[in-house]
C-alpha cells in the first residue's frame, strides 16, 4: 500500500515493498518534486477553457445503484483476438444475464488495434455524458486480459458505467467462475455469513496510517457515523495490528464446514512488489504482507498471503474481497507515475498482469468469490489522511455499504469514479493561468488523490450481487 505521512520537510515516501530486499520499492520524493513533475506532465488550459480529454461527471449519479438489470442492462465486451472458447465457457453466466436483462442484454465487440475510449463509444452510437442503456448497457463485463482491453478503458468507462473484468488463466477457470456465480444466485440459500471481516497489520508508518485512518473508522465509525458493517446490519470481525497475521487471514478463508465464510473480506496492507521479470513476480505481485513481516526483511512465504495460500479446501464461494494494497489486483507494464516527459517510461512488468491471489479466489474449484476490488498500480495511503478530525474514506464506506446492501458489484466503485473525474477537472483547473496557483503541497496532494481514485477496479461480474438472505 502507500506510505507514510509526510514529515515536516514534506518528504513523501512512495508506496510498495520490494519483496527481494524488504525495503521500499520506490525512493522518497518531496512534495516540491512531485509538484514539479505534475506541472511538467499536465497540459495548462487557458482561462475559461474546458479540458478536452478528461471525462466529466455526467450528473447521472443519482441513478446509480438502482441495480435492475432489466432497466439498466448488462453486456459482455468481447475483444477481437480473444479465444472463442473463453466466450463459450461463460455462456451459463451470459444466459442468466440474458434472462434478467431482456432486451437490454448485449454483446459488444472491442478492437484493440483501433478502439480507444471515445472511438469505442462512438462506434456503439453513444458519447461521454450521454448514455443510452439500449445501446450500451450500464453493467459491462470486460472479457479478457489488459493486453486486449487496456486498463485505461476500464478506468474511463467506470465513470458512467458499472464495469468489471474477467481475466483468468485457462478456459476451465473462466467456466468455473461462470458456473460459480450462477450457482450462488440460484441456490436455495446463501453460502456466506452476515459478517464483514477487516484485516490489516500495523508495522510501519504506512500501515499505521491505513490502520488509524482507514480500518479503524470503517470498523468503529467516526463522529456520528457507526461502523460500515453495523450500518449495513452485518457484524464486524476485526483482525488488526498483532492479530493481522498470515494465519488469521488464511483461517478466515478456510473455515470449517460448520462455520460460513464472511460475506466481505477487506484488507489494508503493503503489497509485495517484485522487480520486472523476477521469478516470483507472476505468482506474488501484490501479495498481502501480514504483521509477520518486519521492515527490512526480505519477503518470505511466511510473511505474506498469496494465491498458493488459498488451498483447494478453502471456502470462499459468494465472498467479496477488497484489497487496499499496491498492485492488489493488477500491475501495468509501465509505471503510471513517470518522473518527467523526458525520461523513458519505467518498465515494472514484462506485460500487464493480473495478480494471482484475486484470480485464485474467483476461479476456486469449490466455488469462487463473486468479485475482488483493488488497485492497479500503487495505492496511496496519503490520499486517505484525515482532514482535521474527519477521515477521508467516504468512497470506501459507500462502496462497502452498497456491496453489503445487495447492489450490483458494478455500483461499488461509483464514488471513486466520480471522485476521479471531479479531481481531474480540479487538477487541470488549478493549473489555469487565470487562477491563483496552488502550493506545492496542495498540487502534489491533488495529483495523488486523483491518481489513487482512478486506480480502483473490479475483477469479476459487475452484475453479481450479495444475496438478501445472507445468514446471521
Essential attributes:
16% strand, alpha/beta, 472 residues, four-stranded parallel sheet, 15 helices, disordered N terminus
List the helices and strands and how they pair.
Layout: E1 11-12, E2 17-18, E3 29-30, H1 31-41, H2 69-72, E4 74-79, H3 84-89, H4 91-101, E5 105-110, H5 117-123, E6 139-143, H6 151-157, E7 162-166, H7 171-186, E8 193-200, H8 205-220, H9 228-231, E9 235-240, H10 246-252, E10 262-268, E11 272-273, H11 281-284, E12 288-289, E13 304-305, E14 320-324, E15 330-331, E16 353-354, H12 356-362, E17 371-375, H13 394-404, H14 414-430, H15 440-454, E18 456-460
Question: How would you describe what is shown here?
Answer:
The structure is a single chain. With 472 residues, the chain is α/β, with parallel strands linked by helices. The chain has a domain of 307 residues. A 6-stranded mixed beta sheet has the order 9-8-10-14-17-18, sandwiched between helices. β6, α6 and β7 form a beta-alpha-beta unit. α13 packs antiparallel against α14 and α14 packs antiparallel against α15. The longest helix has 17 residues. The protein is globular, with a radius of gyration of 21 Å. The protein starts with 10 loop residues before the first strand and ends in a 12-residue tail after the last strand.
Amino acid at each position: 500500500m502507500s506510505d507514510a505521512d509526510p514529515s515536516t520537510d514534506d518528504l513523501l515516501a512512495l508506496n510498495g515493498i520490494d519483496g527481494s530486499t524488504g525495503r521500499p520499492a520506490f525512493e522518497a520524493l518531496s512534495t516540491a518534486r512531485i509538484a514539479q513533475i505534475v506541472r511538467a506532465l499536465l497540459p495548462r488550459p487557458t482561462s475559461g477553457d474546458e479540458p478536452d480529454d478528461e471525462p466529466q461527471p455526467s450528473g447521472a449519479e443519482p441513478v446509480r445503484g438502482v441495480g435492475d438489470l432489466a432497466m439498466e442492462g448488462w453486456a459482455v465486451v468481447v475483444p477481437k483476438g480473444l479465444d472463442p472458447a473463453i466466450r463459450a465457457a461463460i455462456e451459463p453466466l451470459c444466459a442468466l444475464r440474458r434472462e434478467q436483462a431482456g432486451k437490454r442484454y448485449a454483446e459488444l465487440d472491442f478492437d484493440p488495434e483501433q478502439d480507444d475510449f471515445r472511438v469505442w463509444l462512438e462506434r456503439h452510437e453513444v458519447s461521454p455524458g450521454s448514455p443510452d442503456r439500449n445501446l450500451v448497457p450500464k453493467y459491462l463485463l470486460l472479457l479478457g486480459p489488459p493486453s486486449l482491453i487496456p486498463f485505461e478503458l476500464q478506468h474511463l468507462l467506470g465513470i458512467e458505467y458499472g464495469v468489471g473484468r474477467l481475466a483468468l488463466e485457462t478456459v476451465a477457470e473462466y467456466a468455473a467462475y461462470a458456473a460459480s456465480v450462477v450457482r450462488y444466485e440460484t441456490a436455495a440459500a446463501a453460502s456466506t455469513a452476515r459478517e464483514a471481516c477487516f484485516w490489516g497489520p500495523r508495522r510501519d508508518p504506512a500501515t499505521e496510517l491505513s490502520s488509524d485512518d482507514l480500518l479503524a473508522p470503517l470498523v468503529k465509525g467516526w463522529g456520528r457515523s457507526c461502523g460500515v458493517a453495523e450500518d449495513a446490519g452485518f457484524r464486524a470481525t476485526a483482525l488488526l495490528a498483532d492479530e493481522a497475521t498470515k494465519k488469521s487471514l488464511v483461517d478466515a478463508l478456510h473455515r470449517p464446514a460448520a462455520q460460513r465464510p464472511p460475506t466481505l473480506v477487506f484488507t489494508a496492507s503493503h503489497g509485495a512488489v517484485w522487480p520486472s521479470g523476477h521469478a516470483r513476480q507472476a505468482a506474488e505481485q501484490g501479495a498481502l504482507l501480514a504483521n509477520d513481516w518486519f521492515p527490512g526483511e526480505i519477503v518470505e512465504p511466511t510473511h505474506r498471503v498469496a494465491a498458493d495460500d488459498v488451498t483447494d479446501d478453502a471456502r470462499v464461494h459468494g465472498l467479496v474481497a477488497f484489497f487496499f494494497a499496491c498492485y492488489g489486483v493488477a500491475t501495468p507494464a509501465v509505471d503510471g507515475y513517470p518522473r518527467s516527459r523526458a525520461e523513458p517510461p519505467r518498465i515494472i512488468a514484462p506485460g500487464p498482469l493480473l495478480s494471482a491471489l484475486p484470480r485464485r479466489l474467483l476461479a476456486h474449484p469449490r466455488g469462487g468469490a463473486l468479485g475482488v476490488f483493488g488497485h492497479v498500480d500503487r495505492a496511496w495511503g496519503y490520499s486517505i489522511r484525515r482532514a482535521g478530525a474527519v477521515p477521508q474514506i467516504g468512497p470506501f464506506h459507500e462502496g462497502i455499504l452498497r456491496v453489503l446492501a445487495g447492489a450490483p458489484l458494478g455500483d461499488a466503485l461509483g464514488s471513486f469514479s466520480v471522485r476521479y473525474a471531479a479531481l481531474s477537472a480540479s487538477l487541470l483547473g488549478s493549473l489555469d493561468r487565470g487562477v491563483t496557483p496552488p502550493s506545492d503541497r496542495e498540487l502534489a496532494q491533488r495529483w495523488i488523490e486523483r491518481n489513487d481514485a482512478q486506480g480502483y477496479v473490479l475483477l469479476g461480474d459487475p452484475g453479481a450481487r450479495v444475496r438478501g438472505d445472507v445468514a446471521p
